[in-house]
Amino acid sequence: MPSSRAYQAYTDLPLFSDFASVADTERYVPLPDDWFVALTDVVKSTEAIRDGRYKAVNMAGAAAIAAVINALDGDASFPFIFGGDGTALALPESSRETAEAALAATARWVEEDLGLTLRTATVSVEEIRRAGHDVRVARFAASDAMTCALFSGGGVSWAEREMKAGRFPAHLAPPGTRPDLDGLSCRWKSLEPQRGTILTILAVPPDDDDNDPAFRQVIHRLVDLIETSERGGRPLADDGPSFAWPPEGLELEARATRGTGSLAVRKLKISAIALLAWVLDRTRRTLGGFDPAIYRKYVSLNADFRKYQDGVRMTVDCSPETVGQIETLLSEARAAGILDYGLLRQQSAVMTCFVPTVTSNTHFHFVDGAQGGYAAAAARLKA
């Protein structure tokens, strides 16, 4: 198991909280050559989403993050990013064996319990640089309790394409192997837009060169358009979503967290916990270190509705006027050869969560569009 010093290349980076500067190259620092990038991707995710399995696709994508963090004894002090139907993580070489075992177990669980296929791969930062790309990272303060990793340099995107092309093949764990997915859940109801449309945005440079000044200028304008709109495009209310009973995603969460135990027993336990949270929220009471109002507030603050991985990826709540302005800006930039983009208008968003403990504010909430999200926007970008 790596020591905490192994992650200092990331944890020593300064934090910034102004997302408008997300494309500023000085924010990003190259990862050391002796780190590696781990990747996952749900095969045929667009088809699964079309069949109404968007929650399962997002659960498969988020599961890799939960599995690796739990395999590292709860240490989340490394960069990772959720992409809807997959994820990207970066770790020092000392964590490679542990991470690969967690990913192999996750892929087996996704196959056996979700009926989906999860590609996984690991590739060294050194190899990415030999191919002419880079992996640079920055730390964005989503709230006073949580930071998000941002990737630049084109290296993660290149590695993803190579993985999908069949390079860096990884093996599944033996049948019946289960990852530790404790804390993974999707209990919230779908997030309905308050301003008109849930818009998923992908905007990337055409040649992976996000260092181009023209590209960075367009990204500044895009982010400014969204941040100056009502509530900055945030798809959750400031006080967070309401607890629901019965809980959404009960079957998926039970399958993820039952270990080798009974599925029925795990469902009953999750239902009981969700009922207790709902009652406490309704009666405005606390229990132990759990305060429902504070928890809901940090669900909103910690939601990763905006991110940067070799380009902007956002799921935002926008008015029709703002959507039109965004589409005009991006279509003009594409016509000028500055970027490629994919947009998807949707009726709701969905949230998958990783909550190590409800008594701390350091819980993670991964947001995607509910009618295709990042996977469908990426398909439009390719088209």
Walk me through the topology:
Elements: H1 8-11, E1 15-16, E2 29-30, E3 35-42, H2 45-50, H3 54-71, E4 80-82, E5 86-92, H4 96-114, E6 118-124, H5 125-130, E7 136-141, E8 147-152, H6 155-164, E9 184-185, E10 197-204, H7 213-227, H8 250-257, H9 263-283, H10 292-301, E11 306-308, E12 312-318, H11 320-335, E13 340-346, E14 349-354, E15 364-369, H12 373-382
Parallel strand pairs: 1-7
Antiparallel strand pairs: 2-7, 3-5, 3-6, 4-5, 7-8, 9-14, 10-12, 10-13, 11-12, 14-15
Describe the structure.
The chain has 383 residues and is α+β, with helices and mostly antiparallel strands. The chain has one domain (4-240, 295-382). 37% of the residues lie in helices and 21% in strands. It contains 12 helices and 15 strands. It has helices spanning 8-11, 45-50, 54-71, 96-114, 125-130, 155-164, 213-227, 250-257, 263-283, 292-301, 320-335, 373-382, and strands at 15-16, 29-30, 35-42, 80-82, 86-92, 118-124, 136-141, 147-152, 184-185, 197-204, 306-308, 312-318, 340-346, 349-354, 364-369. Strands 1, 2, 7 and 8 form a 4-stranded mixed β-sheet that branches. It has a 4-stranded antiparallel β-sheet with strand order 4-5-3-6, sandwiched between helices. A hairpin with a 3-residue loop joins strand 11 (306-308) and strand 12 (312-318). The protein is globular. It starts with 7 loop residues before the first helix and ends with a helix. The model has no long low-confidence stretch (mean pLDDT 94).
